[in-house]
């Protein structure tokens, strides 16, 4: 008994959300709470990036942005004084505008999670949000950041506030002083979430950048995942090094997948990598590889302990394993075209898709967040997925990110994003990057399909 | 066909997986988890569940219940007076027991290679916790406290009824006596209880669980394992519910005796799907969720149910790599060494270009986490996957896991109860092939005959040698449930129900030619008609699951 729609689905190979269970039926609003310079925007951006990467459509709504659009020029902290009626009106209007956009995101753009990034320091403001959400049927989860360590706050201000459009024309001391007074404006009316009075609300309170957490009434899977994520991130400075294995025998032949060893040039790269790493003088570096020979051989040259993760194995090309692109075009022309149509969701017959990869890499990402200095020696598709997470690349760009052989990427989290430095270690290697061809129709001819295949033996 | 010689060296390296969890950033420090809380706050429930979870994901864990040590020391429990704070003799014994338990902890973590020890006791005073911290420091263990705080009298009463009444301490008491004594016992601890303090204990690593998971306070999570423990504790709940596990209906490849692949249902498989639909409807389950894998045979099975279902790639059958869609005879012919290696260590053996059971456990971990969060749920999956899930719920070791019996066309209903899981097995009356391959007797590589001894494609009698038993893994599940059932339904009805129950088990065991339920029911019957209230039933602590 074959169900007709099943065949159709298999042929398309685009079971998009099938590897990810339904997180929730009602959209969720994550509402940040806290004084300025407590890391609310940092958390919002990071959370949004993570949720989008695992496949939950999420968008951030920063009320400060709305305020900047309403009040073109920021004069000084006086705007935020609690007795400034005019300003109060504007700020309330901005919050309302942001809430309206949240509704539009949920209803028109099929968003799943909205992160409402503002101070939300008064019970009154939070009550407005709660009744708004109740009316529309959205779930609300509060994330409050509490911190009184003056050093952390000063560091925050230095890292992100000075670069803010508000302080573009000020000098550092002026800006610092103004911002401190801005914080004081909020302090008087700040009512933290109350453990007694707010016991029916769902929230997490983060104390001192993750030293302590208070979690109340987690309602569903997505909130549980958010809590788990928030409890694993940290702000200790560190760097993540991403690199592919050295050039392999199959790389030289232009064949995908497989489990071959390093070519002579690949071995040279492994040695160069060892030199490079030593030169970087990294404290307590952890090294991770996959279970495949080529990454393990690369790590062996480093002469340090390394851990093997099966989750870091290259994408499984199923029936196309160890084929050249020309052979794939010859034997599976339709599959080849389908892949070019939607490279992120396309799953090789008996193999995997990039979407599956993201799902299996999620524990790796979680552990990368917990760690400090790490070198990950992996594969092309894997590195693309990891890079997309750190650099917030969307699903359609992910499969075409450039991750050439014999190049180390050093990612250093900074301010709200990630600084990327690329180091080519000067050892020649084949190019394994295949761009999306112009013609992706099933009925295209072989030349059009093979237009962008890189050279090989 | 691979070259057998080449097979040797390479496959020895790649054939066996290493516990994925152990290879992830395990620090060398073992961890000591210390429970804190008044009696009847769920400490032992949490300890057992956590131990089961950690062992399942591959972290060697053992629990040390100080109450057990006290029972061994004291032999006979008289009354709550033993626990009075002014009972010098009692205090001395209790301190000795704690020390003995800590000694065993040291033995387990430092000598026997354990990774985590769960020290299950009230540990309600700062002084006692100070002793433990010092002990851990001396031995190089990390300490993580798990405190359970609860003031809801209903929850506490429910706890007492579910687990305390059947405790060895109250064997000779009736229900009222037991409850009264236990309440007084709790009182003995209350006056000296010093909960973990946000300020005084700010340097300790702990999680405070308030009101059975409504609220959590998490302080100073130090490493990966503590982070995983916190995540797990925040996902479990005690709302009553049932988990239904079954395999897809019989598939075309099943009939041909081939493993793996992605075939559709056979005619009998489709019949099973229809029977499953009827069974589910008859069970009248509230808000049932249905999960399948992404393989045709589970999807087709779920389609017949006519309800929405979710597809999980993680529930896909174990990938047999180069052996996909082969018969065991073909594997023996083409990969004899692999076949033998698999029989040597079926749990860790990884098919070339495929997976091991150990890999399966790792990919099923998110499924387990989500199963913990859910309430009523039906999982339609595959043989190896079902074995892994079952091993988690029934606390089976890695050694037993790959040989658990999960026959086709049989639904297992798991209901968490007390400290364990009640299992009911329902065969839906549609014939199917037997796909179970027992551990062969002789496991010498190259010895072909014995390796195939248990191969059995038996269409006529799928349940030959299978027992269907009413099983529990806790010390006394039946007692409190039966007592409350009978007392609630009034003795006349209760007696009718007990009679019906007796005769159903008689019928069922006739069908399977197994008499053990009968013995148990007879025991029960005697007690029902006799002085039930005075003699709660005793069961063996652990009963093996036999299907």
Automatic annotation (TrEMBL), chain A:
**Residues that coordinate or bind substrate:** 244-251, 294
Q: Does the keyword Transport apply?
A: no
- List the coiled-coil residues: none
Q: Tell me which Gene Ontology terms the entry assigns under biological process.
A: fructose 2,6-bisphosphate metabolic process; fructose metabolic process
Q: Which keywords accompany this UniProt record?
A: ATP-binding, Hydrolase, Kinase, Multifunctional enzyme, Nucleotide-binding, Phosphoprotein, Transferase
Q: Give the positions the UniProt entry annotates as the active site.
A: 245 (tele-phosphohistidine intermediate), 314 (proton donor/acceptor)
- Any stretches that span the bilayer, and where are they? none
What CDD domains does its record include? Answer: HP_PGM_like (cd07067)
SUPFAM superfamilies found in the cross-reference section = P-loop containing nucleoside triphosphate hydrolases, Phosphoglycerate mutase-like
InterPro entries with a match to the protein in the record: 6Pfruct_kin (IPR003094), 6Phosfructo_kin (IPR013079), His_Pase_superF_clade-1 (IPR013078), His_PPase_superfam (IPR029033), P-loop_NTPase (IPR027417), PG/BPGM_mutase_AS (IPR001345)
Query: What does UniProt give as GO cellular component?
Result: 6-phosphofructo-2-kinase/fructose-2,6-biphosphatase complex
**Keyword GTP-binding assigned:** no
Q: Which positions fall inside the 6-phosphofructo-2-kinase domain?
A: 18-237
Q: Which GO terms describe its molecular function?
A: 6-phosphofructo-2-kinase activity; ATP binding; fructose-2,6-bisphosphate 2-phosphatase activity
Listed Pfam families: 6PF2K, His_Phos_1
The record's similarity note reads: In the C-terminal section; belongs to the phosphoglycerate mutase family.
Described function: Synthesis and degradation of fructose 2,6-bisphosphate.
- Subunit comment: Homodimer.
Protein name (record): 6-phosphofructo-2-kinase/fructose-2, 6-bisphosphatase 1 isoform X2
The record lists the lineage as: Eukaryota, Metazoa, Chordata, Craniata, Vertebrata
Q: Which gene name belongs to this protein?
A: PFKFB1
UniProtKB/TrEMBL annotation, chain B:
So where's the catalytic machinery, residue-wise? Answer: 248, 317
Keywords assigned by UniProt, alphabetized: ATP-binding, Hydrolase, Kinase, Multifunctional enzyme, Nucleotide-binding, Phosphoprotein, Transferase
**Binding residues annotated for substrate, in chain numbering:** 247-254, 297
> Which residue positions does the secretion signal occupy?
none
- Gene Ontology terms, cellular component aspect? cytosol
Q: Name one GO molecular function term.
A: 6-phosphofructo-2-kinase activity
**Database matches in InterPro entries:** 6Pfruct_kin, 6Phosfructo_kin, His_Pase_superF_clade-1, His_PPase_superfam, P-loop_NTPase, PG/BPGM_mutase_AS
Is the keyword Nucleotide-binding assigned to this protein?
yes
**Domain 6-phosphofructo-2-kinase residue range list:** 26-240
Instruction: Please provide the Gene Ontology terms (biological process) for this protein.
Output: fructose 2,6-bisphosphate metabolic process; fructose metabolic process
Q: Which family does it belong to?
A: In the C-terminal section; belongs to the phosphoglycerate mutase family.
Q: What is this protein called?
A: 6-phosphofructo-2-kinase/fructose-2,6-biphosphatase 4b
- Organism equals Lates calcarifer (Barramundi)
